[in-house]
Amino acid sequence: MSTLRITKEFRFEGAHALTGYNGKCRHIHGHSYRLYITVKGIPISDTTNPKNGMVLDFSDLKKVVNDNIVEIFDHALILKKGAVLSSEISEAYENVVVVDFQPTCENLVIYIQGILKDRLPGKVALQSIRLYETPTSYVEWIADDNR
Known about the structure:
Helix content is 24%, strand content 35%.
């Protein structure tokens, strides 16, 4: 049986600020993020299984990513722990995510990889993550580059 890759796209709105950065991104600002998750596996070959031919049911992938990523970051303000007023802002507003890293697109992709790699169902492996911060700019994590 052939090894295949499947990809699902997710979208969420989020805001962040880059602590100590000397450009415009030091200010709180938002993005319409587009997230692509690709997993790799061998399709189910059991002809009695209604999911015969699937690497992973897209709805199963959707649930894992929505529960662990999208629901947490959608319409959230993402701030680095220790940033000026981060604790006051997180106390005053409901959907503030305080992380231990500078919330760049690059660091978010690494963080997402760390969350998803052990939460995927079945015999699939996380193959790649692509996160668009703007329509023309994205960061990509690829498993083969990180072995």
